Amino acid sequence: MNRKVLIPSLLLTLFLALISQSGKASADECLNDMKTRVKGKENCLAIHTFLTVSEVKPSTLVIFIHGDQSDGGPVSGMIKLAEDVDVPAGVIKIALLRPGYFDKSGNTSSGTSWRRKDSYTPTNLDEVTSAVQSLQSHYQISKTVLVGHSGGAAYAGVMIGRSPGVANAALLLSCPCDIRRWRAFKKDAPWSSLSPSSFAETVPTTMKVITITGEYDDNTREYLAQDYIETLAKRGVSAEFRRAVGAGHNDIVRGDVIDEALRILLRLD
Fold it and tell me: What are the pLDDT digits (tens) for 15-24?
């Protein structure tokens, strides 16, 4: 046997084993304090929690889910939005980092982002859905609103149809609501990501959904959200498309763009 081949092979096996054990440990040893970390199905997801000091018992969760952040940098925009946007007393705002992402402070969600491409997988959707359900149970929440931007909007759109009851309402910003058509437009194929359009028929008719796409969004074009909303509306879901005048794909993540829509979705019966 050639020892020169055997030794590198053994080293590679040990290296891969260490990586596997490290990833498992990060999930098993999750702090899970429901303020900075929450356990998903198998992974430990970083979160930022914003709760206004009030005598009112918390009754509503607003979960902010960021986009793909394709520049490879830290997640920041949706965390700032979650911190800044005004909500009534009794509303807990939580910005959640998708599997494999990190923020400016180095807080990281375990799992994989699939190089920030094609990452709306069943496994990742299960992680985020499980995390939301854990937060609901911990805070004994009766109402939940999902706010997603771009890839985060795809997450939210899939979740409300794939896991009916996970939320009462969803605000989808710059939504690539039909992944097949979005990928075709971007000339990206093949893909494995789940699409909100594939789950439109199972979104509960009790849901409230608002999509907002920027007038100058050259990434997730308006028709992707418009057609999705039309499908929901035909089924009797309270669904509305809005155009953000003068806004592009990323600068739609601003309080002045979403304030009114979020107020509407928070007025849940």
Answer: 333 333 333 3
